[in-house]
């Protein structure tokens, strides 16, 4: 929701959020150099640091999923509040962050959850959900240990709850169908991975897969992220290329099967 680059501090707000009209009213009332563009408002007042800090704090805490013990993101934004502020208005769906979680069993009592990218909200949620079963984390891998039968109930609840605040989780399973996976060729494994990238299952109807591809391609198209910081642009561009290549692979395979 709040990010910072070398040019400005950006606050993303959903077009239908209750806070947006209040934020826009505050910006208009308290900043003389505010400029309304098609989908954003620029605040260029260099000397209004206190008012900028208030605005950043307000929007950050209104997100309702901040961690009082980890204010790194907020502190970084406040440290750069001398920069212009860009209030970007987006569709609610554009605020959703998608994270793929690979679930891998180690023996019969341990699970590794590998996140496609680090996210403090998702990590805190997993730690809280699994409680004493949480062993620790290294890079983007979370380690869980089974102590009793309630552990597997927690696993099933975790898999069933795909939305955490503004995060959408999608799951990729490893070792749950070990007998099937073991005998797949590298090409077959690659094809299944392509289906997973398009939020699909192997064997799904091609027209359904195509619809999902078009939706993802529109969502991650690089043109949507003009003006974002370089890392965010790179992440989304990489994702867009993976989506495109996955669709090409599935389409090529589908063409071979129908001829």
From TrEMBL:
<dbReference type="InterPro" id="IPR036869">
    <property type="entry name" value="J_dom_sf"/>
</dbReference>
<dbReference type="InterPro" id="IPR001623">
    <property type="entry name" value="DnaJ_domain"/>
</dbReference>
<feature type="domain" description="J">
    <location>
        <begin position="193"/>
        <end position="255"/>
    </location>
</feature>
<dbReference type="Pfam" id="PF00226">
    <property type="entry name" value="DnaJ"/>
</dbReference>
<protein>
    <submittedName>
        <fullName>J domain-containing protein</fullName>
    </submittedName>
</protein>
């Amino acid at each position: 929701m709040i990010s910072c680059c070398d040019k400005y501090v950006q606050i993303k707000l959903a077009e239908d959020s209750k806070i947006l009209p209040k934020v826009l009213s505050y910006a208009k009332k308290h900043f003389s150099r505010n400029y309304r563009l098609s989908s954003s408002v620029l605040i260029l007042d260099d000397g209004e640091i206190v008012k900028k800090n208030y605005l950043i704090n307000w929007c950050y805490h209104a997100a309702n999923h901040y961690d009082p013990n980890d204010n790194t993101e907020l502190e970084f934004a406040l440290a750069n509040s001398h920069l212009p502020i860009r209030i970007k208005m987006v569709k609610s769906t554009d605020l959703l962050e998608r994270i793929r979680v690979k679930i891998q069993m180690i023996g019969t009592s341990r699970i590794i959850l590998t996140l496609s990218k680090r996210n403090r909200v998702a990590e805190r949620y997993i730690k809280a959900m699994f409680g004493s079963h949480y062993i620790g984390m290294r890079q983007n891998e979370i380690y869980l240990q089974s102590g009793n039968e309630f552990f597997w109930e927690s696993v099933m609840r975790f898999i069933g709850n795909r939305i955490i605040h503004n995060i959408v989780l999608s799951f990729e399973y490893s070792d749950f169908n070990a007998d099937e996976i073991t005998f797949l060729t590298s090409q077959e494994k690659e094809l299944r991975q392509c289906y997973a990238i398009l939020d699909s299952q192997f064997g799904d109807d091609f027209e359904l897969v195509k619809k999902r591809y078009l939706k993802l391609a529109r969502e991650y198209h690089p043109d949507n992220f003009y003006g974002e910081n370089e890392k965010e642009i790179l992440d989304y561009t990489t994702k867009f290329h993976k989506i495109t290549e996955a669709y090409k692979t599935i389409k090529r395979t589908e063409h071979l099967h129908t001829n």
